[in-house]
Amino acid sequence: MAKHGKKYNNVREQIARGERLPVGEALAKIKELAFVKFDESVDVDVNLGIDPSKGEQVVRGSVVLPHGRGKTVKVLVFAKGDYADQARNAGADYVGAEDLLEKITGGWMDFNYAVATPDMMGLVGKVAKILGPRGLLPNKKLGTVTTEVAKVVGNLKKGQAFFRNDKAGIVHFSIGKASFDADKLKDNLLAFVRALQSVKPPTAKGKYIKKMSLSSSMGVGIPVNSEEFLRA
Fold first, then answer.
1. What SS3 state is found at 101?
2. pLDDT tens digit sequence for 10-33
């Protein structure tokens, strides 16, 4: 069994006592406790007051994080003509149509997001069974099926990220890297929580954000005082 230091164990003791830390203090502890050789992600888990079994209470949305997530993303765009030119000028990594379809069918998947213009969706449908399970299928509700390809590609490159609740009504989301300044992590977290609040289902009753905890990839989950944070 791996042994942890005093700082790590002190945090575990606080959690055992049911303490909810201020967000700034929790982020400072996460940075302080980061001990692995790679740059860990900093993640937030939010328990929502929804019934995930009801389709009208599914929570999904996106947010452009002010400081990004600390990683380079590759964007693929299915488009032709002027839309293809707009995508390239906006910084898309791969732009095409049938040629991309052939590569994907052959097993190539070297991209993080896929965008398509509406007229390309008939073509994209041929690889839906490949892209869908990986969460890469362009989706009108998420804004990745669009004629505003330049805007969407630009946002994805700046750090736009998507979220959705799981079967337990929890949203898991990464707000950056442990190497980020605590203030940048806090900015990203606030942007995410505000985006989460903006997509509250009208039929959800009672308290919407019930619990929130922060952690690094390899660290302990730290419950935080979300009410205090949202009032700040």
1. helix
2. 656 656 556 788 899 999 988 887
**What is the C-alpha to C-alpha distance for residues 153 and 148, in angstroms, rounded to an integer?**
9
Choose among 172, 161, 154: nearest CA to 212: 172
Question: Which among 223, 158, 225, 230 has a CA at the least distance from the CA of 194?
Answer: 230
Q: 159-188, pLDDT tens digit by residue?
A: 899 999 999 999 999 999 999 999 999 999
Residue 79 CB contacts under 8 Å (≥ 6 apart), including other chains: 86, 87, 95, 97, 115, 116, 117, 120, 149
- Per the CB < 8 A criterion, the answer to whether 195 and 44 are in contact is no
Among the four given CATH numbers 3.30.2130.30, 3.40.50.720, 3.40.50.790, 3.30.930.10, the one describing domain 75-157: 3.40.50.790
The two tokens of residue 105 are 């069918």
Overall average pLDDT of the 6-13 stretch: 60
Pairing of strands 75-78, 113-116: parallel
Instruction: State the DSSP string of 159-173.
Output: TEEEEEB-TTSEEEE
CB–CB of 214/202 below 8 Å? no
pTM of the predicted structure, to 2 decimals: 0.80
Sketch the domain layout of the chain as residue ranges. 21-69+160-231, 75-157
- In order of 49, 198, 209, the CA distances from 6 in angstroms are 35, 40, 32
Fold adopted by 21-69+160-231: Ribulose 1,5 Bisphosphate Carboxylase/Oxygenase (3.30.190)
